[in-house]
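Shipment paperwork, digital attachment
Item: protein structure file
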Amino acid sequence: MVKKVLITIFSVLLCISCNDGMYDTLSRNTDDPFTEKPKAVSFVTTNAVYLSWSSDDCADEYILERAENLQSLVYKEIYRGTRTSYDDFGLSNDIMYLYRLSKRRGNKTFGPSDPVLGVSSTVARDIYEPNDTIENATLLTSRAPYIANMYYYQSYNGISIGDEDWYCVDVPPLLCADILVNDSQTENNKDPSHFMVSYPNRSSEQVDHLVSFKVENTESETARLYFKLYPNNSKFISQLPGSSGGKVVKYTISVTGMQAF
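Attachment content:
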């Protein structure tokens, strides 16, 4: 009798275990993995690019490949596994790399994705980053100039990455703030700098080296006004078709005064 009871219990447990395994197999999403470009983040630490991507329940593993920026790309696998990030350390200085992502499900590979661009450099982001959105704008005051940098790079296949720096300034009613930019790679005063400036709901303008531009408050009370510096692409790389290049440009930005407009 005891033996029959034990056999019955074992059979029930075995059945439950099999049913759980079958349920997991049957309930798994049968869709193909979705194609996704990895996200590449540069200029965080020396000679490194940080890669990440979304988790995909339909994928068994991820495959990340890298190619040096050459006119004929040669991709090499640098990661294969189940993680959703990869830190690419120990890269050569001042080199652009292209990354693409594939996914495996069973014995089938999906992808690769379109490539993304990363840059290996000894230069790190300035201390005001991340200020690449209006929500994270750096507040300028009349203290000493703010020291920052900006980058723009483009690969041979036309993929580009560039920095954007948002700033804001508190301007009294019916006055304007004079904003001065000192471009470390432009020699002559009044020459075009490496930067453009844009404002919400206004057209963009060229920023000239050591020539103030104005941020105007037309309201009858003090207002916090926002503007964005971004790369003037033609100053960072050649504009000839198929050109590749880029650099990091250091600059200072300051509020030099308030005046009526």
